Structure formats: C-alpha cells, structure tokens
C-alpha cells in the first residue's frame, strides 16, 4: 500500500495526521535499524507463585530449533511455555535441549493433554513430560484449554495435581483458556479454595472490557496472568507497508500491569528479536495508531470465505476460493499453495471468467473490492 | 422508526445473511465430512454423534494453541469424528482428518509428530503407529487417530480404522518428490522434515527440508533451502552471509554466481557449510569436522541437478 492510499483511507483520523506517516514509520522501525542488541530483561512477579519472570517470555510451540530458544535464555528470558500435546511431545524434547545446563535459571510451564481427565491419565502425562523435559519438577502444570467452570472443579483432577505437588513433581497449578475465557478467569478468581495459581489467557488489543475486568480481578486476587494470542490471530497483511504491527500488539498487552508476561510464539531469530526488543519499551501513540490501522486493515482485507458474494456473481465465479488462493500467495507467501488451490477451480468458475463481464456486480458484505481481487488473481495465478 | 422496530429489522437482516450463507458453507463441509466413514470405521466401532468440521478460524477450538503449527502448512479444514466401541464401553477413538496445502505440507505436518524410532505401519504415503495413536498422510491429507478413552483399543482397530479412512481419500500414495533430495548416503532415514518457514530459525531461509546425518560416526544436521529461483536462492545466501558478518563470525567464500559456497561459523550452530545449486541452498550444521559432511552435501547437490 502506498502512502497516498494509506492516508486516503483516513483510518488514523486527526491524530494520525498530526503525527504523520514518517513519524509513525520511524517510531515503528526504531528497533529494526542498526545492529540488534538484546535489551536488559524486565521482570514481573507471577502472582502468588512469587516467581519473577520476564515480561516477554517464550512460547516454544512453533520453534523447531532449540538453539533459537537457547538464545532467548542466554539473554535473560526465564520462562518457557510448552505442552505435552505439541508435536506429540517432541516440543518438550526441543525445550529440554535448549535448557541443557540452564535448568536452574529458567522456569518451565507445560500442559496436561486436554483429553486426560482421570487421575491416572494426569499422573501419566506429568511423568511423561518430566522425562521429555529432563527435569525433576515442572514449575507450572496447566490444564490445557479450559472452556468453562465445570472442569476447574473436577475433584479427580484436583486430587491428581495435589498428589503431584506433594511428590515435588510440580510446583504450581495453572489453567489455559482461549474460549469463553472471561467465565474461566472469573471462575478461578471465585474459587474459594484458591486452587489455581496462574491463568494463561488469550488477550490482545481486540479483547473486550469484560475480559479486561476479569484479568484485573485475577491479578488482584494474586493469580498470575500470562497472555497468549497477543497478535489477535497473527494475520499477515501487507497493508502496513514496512511497519510490523507485532511489537505494538505485544506492547499493548504488557502495558497492562495486570498481565505478568506474554508468551509470543517465536519460530525464528527474526521473531525472537522483534518480540524480545519490546522489553523496556512503552506503548506509544504511534503504537496505538498502528494497532487501529492494523485492526482495520486486517478486517477489510481479510476474506471471511463466507461465500455470500458468490450468489451475486452472474458468472458463478468461486470468489472465496480465488480469494483464498490470493491469501496464500500474498499473506502466506506460498506460491505453491496458491497455485494448487487456484488450479482446483474449474475454468468457468475461475477469475478469468470475469473478463467476460463489463462491470463487476458481485458485492461483499464485509466491503472487499471483489473486482480488484479478481484482477489481481488473474495477474498472479491465471 | 422506533428503536424496537429498528432492532427487529436489524435482527432479521442479520438472520437473513446468516441463513443465506449456509448453502455455500454447507457444500464445502459436506465434501470434507464424507472422508469420515459414517457407518463405522472398524468392526464393532460406530460413529458417535455427527462429525464436525473446523476451519482456519475455528481450529483453535479443537486443538487449542497447536493450531498455529498447522497454518504455515496451508491448513484448509479439519473433519473430525468420534468412534466408540460397541463391545467395550468407554473405549473411543478420535479421528481427525486435516486437509493441508499440498502433499509436501501434509508430509511436513506429519513429520512434526514423528521420531526416528517411532514404529511404522503400512498405510497412506507413510504412517506411524503407537499403542494409543496412528498418524499417516496421504495426498494432501494428514490423518490422526487418537485413543481417548479406556480401555485403549488394540492396534488392529487402529489399522482397520486407518484403512477405512485411507480408502475415502485420494488414492495417490506417493511421498513428496522433494524428499528424493535427501535419499543419500549419511542421511539418517526417517528424520526428514519439511519446514515451511524459517529453516534453521532464520526468516530469510523461507522454506526447506532438514534431516539428521551420520557419517563416519559424526552426527550433523543437513538442510536444503528451497527457493523459487536461483536469484532468490542467491539473495537468501547473501542475507545469511550478512547475518554472519553482523554477528562477527568468519565465513570463507568460494565460487561465483549461483554456484557459490560458504564455509564458516554460525552463531547458533557452530561450524556450517552451505552451497548453492540453482534455486537450492544445501548445507550442514552442528558439524564437528566440516570435511566429513562435505560428501553428503555434494551428493544432495548432485540430486538437485535436473530438478526444476
């Protein structure tokens, strides 16, 4: 997107005009220019656990190379989150390799398999995790993906976790939630037994006020709150040109003092540098504007594949499939996948059919410019 | 217009939009859901409840944060069903069929779950089987059968269910052609992986293959970065070289054009060798002795010749 188009959209309003594009770009690019230096780590206390952990900690789920995780540890990151389920347990093994010689410097959180509900299953999961992680204890053991109150109060689960703590195999209990998260967080706060010490919750600049309030309640009650999904889905967009919205999204989360830390998934050194650099940074006006623009850009560029527009196309073009092909090409940057997807469309329903139309009459309920998308698809894929 | 009237009109409009979108979504769903045998997947194992379909926007609801692992592999949709044993109450199998971007993507996501010593089975393009699960890929589909209840079903049940599912999928059962690049002396079988983003953790190595190597008692990791053109491969090579320099590391260059090679020291992996061959970058890391792994790299390089 060109500067002219960016300004034309007027998404930034008067404040954007005051700051100007250059100011915005400069602000967003501060961390990118020049040789990279890892910042001094910044710590917060994880609620009543008393653990002091880095505000940007490591979500290891996507990281295939232990050396990348290791670099984070060597530069002060001291909390890593994995799960029994990720890669069939191989992710815990990758974390173990990164931890070699550093077990006493890094806190480890992992998760019981979601489907493990019986005492035996939970005990087995933790034993397997301990073996894979090559540790004698897990700092935070979490129930994976809790979606409502009921599971939090299951006596068999609680009995298993208490037994594990008595054995010294786990230190603290946590919960993870990214569906119905407000109810889950509130239920943990309201638990008179104060059973759970931490909650790992989906939280980002698109979260609603109810969740924000629940998180504040949790923090006040001494529950350590860790944020995940901080990028609001992480949809890629070229609409911001050279500006990455990821730092702004991460800053938005950790500027909330009720959040102890965020655990962005870091696949590579690029992600690591971008995310870790946020420690010590403040959320600026430019960041807020970037997030507003990013949110708007993603929602207007992102095809929801609802297929509604196809009813309005007289040529029967499979617009949603064409758009998906484009998304693969432009957002995922996978020419192979884009081509494979586009090639599956029968010729009469491809974007080439649009050439026989004088003017595009297809309409998108979300405001996508369908004619422009089809033209782009023809250019790239036809 | 009163507020109440406005609310009614708005509600009806939303309802109309939702209802109108159902046929389009329904057609896609039906095609994917038919890969799950409706009657049952093995003798005495019946489908409980209706199968469900998940898309990119809802995959989190089914597999939680693990969903993020699937997206770079071109995840398209997931059809899932639960099969229960009529004879053994409580014994269940969760059947997940993921439609990925391509055969290579299906292999890639499958390879994330495989270890070199995981027992294999004969199904699809490749298959692993343990006491509690079976995973295979076939065409662009990745299939995961997981025991979720007790007692755990026997492996014969997994095999029968797997076969029933396999028959419902496209019958092309070959492995991705790209894996032929790694069929060379020294590469440890069943350690190949396809990485769709950031090979070796470097964003400029956009996608490629990795595998363990063992030659002369020395272990290392070999990799092949796959680019769209020789120029793009050279650009990635130059970006890597620049990153080494930024880290203050040594790198010795030989050759020119798209036949350039590098022998140096990587800040993450220690000794490294990389050679360009057209649109491929072939190399090895975690080396003890560079010379030992050179023949492996050369042999892979030889296999890139003649490939587009």
Task: List the defining traits of the structure above.
heterodimer; A: 382 residues; alpha/beta; 8-stranded parallel sheet; two-stranded antiparallel sheet; 10 strands; 42% helix; 11% strand; elongated; disordered N terminus; B: 308 residues; alpha+beta; 8-stranded antiparallel sheet; 7-stranded antiparallel sheet; 15 strands
Provide the structure class of chain A: alpha/beta
Give the spatial strand order of the biggest sheet of chain B: 1-2-3-4-8-7-6-5
- Helical amount of chain B: 25-40%
Please describe the biggest sheet of chain B, giving its number of strands, its sense, and whether it closes into a barrel. 8 strands, antiparallel
Shape of chain A: elongated
Mean pLDDT of chain B: 88
Mean pLDDT across every amino acid position of chain A: 83
As a percent range, the share of strand residues of chain B is: 25-35%
Number of strands of chain A: 10
Largest interface: A-B, 53 and 49 residues
Report the helical percentage of chain A. Answer: 40-55%
Number of strands of chain B: 15
Would you mind describing this structure in some detail?
The complex is a heterodimer of chains A (382) and B (308). Chain A is of the alpha/beta class and 382 residues long. Chain A has helices spanning 3-9, 13-29, 66-74, 90-99, 119-133, 155-166, 181-190, 209-220, 246-254, 269-276, 285-301, 319-330, 335-343, 370-381; strands spanning 43-45, 52-54, 58-59, 79-81, 107-112, 138-143, 170-177, 198-202, 224-228, 261-262. In chain A, the strands form 2 sheets. Chain A has an 8-stranded parallel sheet with strand order 3-4-5-6-7-8-9-10, covered by helices on one side. Chain A has a two-stranded antiparallel ribbon with strand order 1-2. In chain A, strand 4 (79-81), helix 4 (90-99) and strand 5 form a beta-alpha-beta unit. In chain A, helix 5 (119-133) runs parallel beside helix 6 and helix 7 runs parallel beside helix 8. Chain B has 7 helices and 15 strands. Chain B has helices spanning 3-33, 59-63, 67-70, 103-111, 155-168, 230-246, 290-304; strands at residues 40-42, 45-55, 77-85, 92-99, 120-121, 126-129, 133-138, 141-147, 193-195, 208-215, 218-226, 251-254, 261-266, 270-277, 280-285. Chain B has an 8-stranded antiparallel sheet with strand order 1-2-3-4-8-7-6-5. Chain B has a 7-stranded antiparallel sheet with strand order 9-10-11-15-14-13-12, with helices on both faces. Chain B starts with a helix and ends with a helix. Chains A and B meet through helix 3, helix 10 and helix 13 of A and helix 1 and helix 2 of B.
